[in-house]
Design brief:
About 80% of the residues lie in helices and about 0% in strands. It is mainly alpha-helical and about 170 residues long.
Length: about 170
């Protein structure tokens, strides 16, 4: 009969062995720098384990390679799914000025076809990035033909006003 300690030690040993195998498997992947971004890009568009692993690896990529994935990350940030928090964190860690200089242009195609879901998810991202950026998108939402999109814009304008009042 095994004890809890033996079961715990055995489970820990299996975790260590799996981790070691994982690290060893990553070495050739990191060495394949020419294909790395494309492989991760494909994985981002595969829900489940592939996307989860890609999102785990992206923070370890050089900044230049992370920048190449911004369009894909913004697509993923525009709708609700189980990994949206990880996507937002990765976007937030990109160089701020570089990101703010291009994000509005990059989300235009998403918003052209976008409905309430896309506007809300992107507003949730924008509010973490920059107040003025969020204000511009919320005001844009107010002009939309769809009532749900206009409501999203109103909600975020009220949220920003509330934040401003608390910090004033």
């Amino acid at each position: 009969m095994s004890t809890d300690s033996e079961n715990g030690d055995g489970a820990w040993r299996r975790v260590v062995d799996a981790w070691t195998t994982y690290i060893e498997a990553l070495q050739p992947f990191w060495a394949a720098s020419a294909q790395r971004v494309e492989v991760i890009r494909r994985a981002l568009h595969s829900p489940g384990k592939e996307r989860a692993l890609a999102l785990t690896l992206i923070p370890s990529l050089p900044v230049a390679e992370r920048k190449l994935l911004l369009n894909d990350l913004l697509q993923l940030a525009s709708y609700g799914h189980g990994s949206i928090a990880a996507v937002r964190q990765i976007v937030q860690k990109l160089p701020r000025k570089w990101l703010l200089d291009r994000i509005e242009e990059l989300v235009k195609p998403i918003l052209e076809e976008g409905e309430e879901e896309e506007y809300r998810r992107l507003l949730e991202l924008f509010v973490k990035l920059d107040r003025d950026l969020t204000l511009r998108l919320a005001r844009q939402a107010l002009q939309h033909a769809d009532e749900g999109v206009r409501e999203a814009g109103e909600d975020f304008l009220h949220e920003l006003e509330g934040r401003h009042a608390r910090t004033a």
